[in-house]
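Note to self: user wants both folds in one dump. Writing first protein now.
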Amino acid sequence: MATQAEFEHPRKAFGWAARDTSGVLSPFNFSRRETRENDVAFKVLYCGVCHSDIHMLKNEWGFSLYPLVPGHEIIGIVTEVGSKVNKFKVGDKVGVGCMVGSCRKNTCRNCNDALENYCPQMILTYGVKDTDGTITYGGYSDLMVADENFVVRIPQGFPLDAAAPLLCAGITVYSPLRYYGLDKPGLHVGVVGLGGLGHMAVKFAKAFGVKVTVISTSPEKKDEAIQLLGADHFLISRDHDQMQAATGSFDGIIDTVSAFHPLLPLISLLKCHGKLVMVGAPEKPLELPVFPLIMGRKTVAGSTIGGMKETQEMIDFAAKHNVKPEIEVIPIDYINTALERLLKADVKYRFVIDIGNTLKPST
């Protein structure tokens, strides 16, 4: 049966969507807007699967709109450009990450500072209202249309499937490493959690030349952390003796965990003036002990993705230094199983959907 989504815009599109908070995905016919003068249209080839897709599918953050087509790690090849587009041409390899719009007004300090991700009117790639009142649809679909200012160029020769997770997982850890000055050779940086975000934090931190320790509750992850991802050390957060021995030894910690967990043990690991940066998004509030912050002039901070200039910088850096995520490429019809596995942390370390070869309209 036809839906309103099929006729909102002139251009037919096909993807997989959830219709309600069950989060179960199934084939979905909808539509995309025509290519405006500043737009880039592209055929989607790959789309990464992010843990926030699960939060959005189940409306755990409280603002999801349905039908919901997830996906904000989107890679493809340009098929059409608007008349005023000057950054891209047909045939270019491009990507769209977590946002497709912001106010871009001269009066917006964040937009003027290339921090569109912090603009109060930032538009998410999927599951929210666009400027025309229609719902934005993400990359679990066959085509995308986006303003050129929210499209990035994929460097020549960089694997397209591996590029996808950089558009969320990559920039989410790259940006705080840069902003909080944790990118200087010789510093000691901890990474909490070894999932999609965590493994990218290890790889970027090592590329910056810092000493990296993975902090995990899972002893069985030690070999992969050190041998596969290149971490220098591995710290079991449930081992009191190990944690005690590491007290006051970290310049900064990137915390990627999206489940409830105590912060005090992590704060204790920081040197004076150290920084604990939260990039995971737990559903429930965490307890923040203030006294140890005061006594060491320590900082607990947050960070989310990056602006478009920094996102392009990150991808170019990744290509130059051969920073690539560890991925498992899947067909679109495996997506519901993949999401179940993701909830169990049963992936090394990021699912990427092969949209180009496996997304076929139902007959």
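First done. Writing the second protein, which came from a different request thread.
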Amino acid sequence: MEILRSLCRLKRIQGHMMSTHVEPEVLLEKVGRAGVITMNRPKVLNALNLTMIRQIYPQLKKWETDNDTDFVIIKAAGGKAFCAGGDIRAVTEAGKVGDPLAQDFFREEYILNNAIGTCRKPYIALIDGITMGGGVGLSVHGRFRVATEKTLFAMPETAIGLFPDVGGGYFLPRLRGRLGLFLALTGFRLKGRDVQRAGVATHFVESKKIPDLEKELVDLKSPSAEDVTRVLDTYQNKSSLDSDKPFVLDKHMSDIDRLFSASSVEGIMQNLKADGSEFAKKQAETLSKMSPTSLKITYKQLQAGASMSLQDVLVMEYRLSQACMRGCDFYEGVRAVLVDKDQNPKWNPSTVEEVSDESLEHCFSSLGERDLTL
């Protein structure tokens, strides 16, 4: 009996020891001539935090100049998410008490987004799962983005009193027609092959083929961008899943271009209400739930970003991030959607009409020496 008790105690201690073994939040390894980044927080859908950013950035810069590294692959553990976004709960907690994390997180995240966008070596993001917000920032500025049937893309920030940052002001207005503005304002979700059809991903490969694809990439000897393209194209051509289904927004594209081409958020809302179609009704209802301040910031952000470099967009977005930290909607949105989950935010101001041009201008104004420098 005594032996049994001590065995049980040993089991408990072992169990405890195993549970205190902390997995690294991001894995950085060389496989052949490839630098491989693996997001490794599957329990929280690989949410991106400052610790991870501070590990990925210097390694990416090192690989970029290292003669033994030909290209970079970024992927994620767990099979469910690539990265569901930035760890914004931590950011709002910091913002409430004036902790510098509220500045450091956005600043360092945007510096990483820029490093990905300017990376001189092929950068391949395997976005096999949920890819939103901060996860989009880790992938969309790279040369290659491979979606699978498990990919779920969205920029849902207007629902939490933020705006589609991480360079959203750069890539969204460059999608066809008014698609980017539509995705930015409504947070509409794209799935699977549609992520590539929208232009967010460069390729579509079936999820079960990803391990083979990765192996084939890693086995390449000093590949050029063309060599990588060839491999990705081959795998895409072998992936026929859902190829017969039309793009989910195909039948709505002309409506989106027409309804979302108004010269203001108010104009878009009027267009949607006047249109009367099911689709327009649904989008009007969606927009009515979003932060009015966020909607106005986002409209102006994409309008300006359409003719800016990625660097200038990130400088602008850093100003906007700090305006959101000074305001109240971001805290209220995170409370309603992520903390209390009552899905009932009380926005202030509560209508787009009440968001003054003056308060909007203030969000975009320079922070002087606190501006982001790239």
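Dump finished. Worth passing along: The chain has a mean pLDDT of 95.
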